[in-house]
Amino acid sequence: MSASKPAEQMQFRAEVSRLLDIVVHSLYSDKEVFLRELISNASDACDKLRYAAVTQPELTGDNPDFKITIDIDQKARTITVNDNGIGMTRDELVENLGTIARSGTSAFLEQIKDAKKADINQIGQFGVGFYAAFMVSQAVEVKSRKAGSEEAWSWESDGRGEFTVEETDKSTRGTEITIYLKQGEDEFLNPERLRTIIGKYSDHIAIPVILNGEEKPANRAGALWLRPKNEITADQYKEFYHHVAHAYDDAALTLHWRAEGVIEYTGLLFVPSVKPFDLFDPKRQHGVKLFVKRVFITDHADGLVPPWLRFLRGVVDSEDLPLNVSREMLQNNPTIAKMRQGLTKRVLSDLAKFANDDAAGYAKFWDNFGAVLKEGLYEDADHRKDLSKLVRCRSTATLGKGNDELVSLADYVGRMKEGQESIFFICGESIEKLQRNPHLEGFKAKGVEVLLLTETVDDFWPASLESFDGKSFKSVTRAGEDLGKIDAAPDHAEALAKAGEGTADLVALLKLTLGDEVKDVRTTDRLTSSPVCLTADEGDLDIHLERFLKQHNQIRTASKRILELNPTHALIIQMAARAKQSGAADSLKDIAWLLFDQARLLDGDTLSDPVAFSERLGNVLVGAVLAKAV
Q1: Is the dihedral of CA 28, 33, 39, 40 positive or negative?
Q2: What's residue 3's pLDDT?
């Protein structure tokens, strides 16, 4: 090593230290995958240099043929993985091997610190397979020289919290990783054992892997996605997914096709079975790599995949783009736009087939990625119709009846009641809270199914979709008048008619008492057990959506709501009778305000004046106690 600069000793970031502990003690059931991860990283480094050399051929110089070599030193008990790829500078070594620059890392690791092996698959989302080397090593040394640079640097660590970085000598570009094996890991000093591992996990790698200087590569070294599908085994697809996605789960769905015609490209895409922890991070990008004629271009080609398919992993290889295309040129490239359209259409078609062929498997997919797909319903008008067929929801028709299955919009429309003209839904924070929401009472009484929507995106997509199969979407928080067109049970209809006759005075009194706090007061058939609820007028924002927008400072003032009364409720009946008597305005004032506050609380609002609420409640309780004593 060069002595020009002293070695720098640094601490791993806290996230890396915790991750190393999980990797070493909990992550893998098969330690052999450490070699898969190192080969995968070496392959990525070669791909990146191959692309850079398209415009800067001097970077590869007199060494244009990429390869990965693996050498075993049984006496020193080391394994060395060497590539002639892009290499790393001193700062890149520190950044790539000493930190995890991913939003949400700390919170995620805190959540899984006590998890079992079966729950750790999501570690792969970090793309930090390098750390798997510490499962079998007592120390790891990395030497790297950036292509086009004369400087080389070494990184060393025993994985216990610290690492050192210093300048070193390295005659060739690329990265060399030397693993000093722990005692008891002698199996990995056997060349045949490593050959088996390479064949099992890395046969698809497009870079030749040379073991112990042998002439013939230990892998097939061909682009897997260009092979005919009937020549690719399930295990080969599986291992390619692990490589391209840096993942440890098994893909829920594999899509492999070749598009021919105006443009030609090959796609090999995977839908993960595990939801990435940062799926909703604003900076998150898709995981589809772009190749041109088998030359890697970029990990994240802007415009290749719509944002609402960002969970996809895999590769797309174009025959039409020029090899020297820059990442900036890709943004508005018409070929990329056509590929995006074809890719999106293919993915939606395969997802529809998945939903039809494997309802249980699709339900798991929807729980993981349904919220992302629903973003497309309001972002992408071109694919809205196809996306709507993929939507799945919880609903009142299945919950609480021993059948928690997801409901498609087609299922819902097929079960609509006679006289029902809309697809009814309600938005809220959780299924449990929605099931107890008073707005559902009348719908339950008439056997009308309601979709229960609990994700943030649910506040937006119904209005964008507008209709499905000719049926409009309508929130139950402002759909009371539509229930009148649906037949009710005879006894309930009779009770409504009889009770409603005597409420006119009470309605007038409540309007006068509450004044500008409400937009209107009226009776409703939406309630069966609750006395009151608040609803939005036809032209106003849905109650839950408006609250969301207000919380995020998108609007400043809330709309006035309509207070609806249940004319069959005992309290409303008694109040209606009292409203006909003299002095009713004073005697019912506190109760009127308490009912209004009750309706607001049931909708998730906070009390605007808790002190006044407490005083009114006290007055009503005192009056009730005194009346009972008399």
Answers
A1: negative
A2: 47
Q: What angle do CA 548, 551, 553 make, to 5 degrees?
A: 110
CATH class of residue range 391-483: alpha beta
**Other CB atoms within 10 Å distance of the CB of residue 355:** 20
**Contact (Cβ atoms closer than 8 angstroms) between residue 212 and residue 72:** yes
pLDDT at 101: 44
Give the domain 490-629 fold: Four Helix Bundle (Hemerythrin (Met), subunit A) (1.20.120)
**Of 142, 420, 429, 504, whose CA–CA distance to 437 is shortest?**
429
Q: Which residue has the tokens 């006289």?
A: 419
Q: pLDDT tens for residues 580-589?
A: 999 999 999 9
34-48 pLDDT tens trace: 898 899 899 999 999
pLDDT (average), residues 60-82: 95
Among the residues of 122-210, which ranges form H helices?
Answer: 191-201
Q: Cα–chain-centroid distance for residue 450? A: 25
Domain boundaries, the chain: 8-221, 229-236+255-348, 391-483, 490-629
Distance CA 79, CA 67 (A): 17
Residue 64 in tokens: 């244009």
Query: How many whole angstroms separate alpha carbon 533 and alpha carbon 431?
Result: 19
Domain 229-236+255-348: top CATH class = alpha beta
Examine the pLDDT at 455 and tell me if it is beyond 80: yes
For 576, the enclosing helix (H) or strand (E) is helix 570-579
Given the DSSP bridges, would you call strands 78-83 and 68-73 parallel, antiparallel or unpaired? antiparallel
CA distance linking residue 169 with residue 556, whole number of Å: 63
Distance from C-alpha of 540 to C-alpha of 550, rounded to nearest angstrom: 14
Q: Choose between 107 and 431: higher pLDDT.
A: 431
Q: What percent of the chain has pLDDT over 70?
A: 87
Task: For residues 563 and 596, give the distance between their C-alpha atoms in angstroms, rounded to a whole number.
Answer: 7
For Cα atoms 532, 533, 536, give the angle at the middle one, nearest 5 degrees: 145
The secondary structure of 298-344 as a DSSP string is ESS-TTTS-GGGTT-EEEEEESSS-TT--HHHHTT-HHHHHHHHHHH
As to burial, measured by CB atoms within 10 angstroms (0-12 exposed, 13-18 middle, 19+ buried), residue 159 is: buried
Domain at 8-221, CATH class? alpha beta
Q: 316 or 331, which is more confident? A: 316
Read off the pLDDT of each residue in 610-629 and give the average, rounded to a whole number. Answer: 81
pLDDT at 125: 45
What's the gap between Cα 409 and its chain centre?
A: 22
The beta strand positions in 325-456, using DSSP E, are 392-395, 407-408, 422-427, 451-453
Q: Which residues pair with 256 in a beta bridge?
A: 268
Distances (CA, A) of 224 to 202, 228, 262, 315, 606: 11, 9, 24, 10, 58
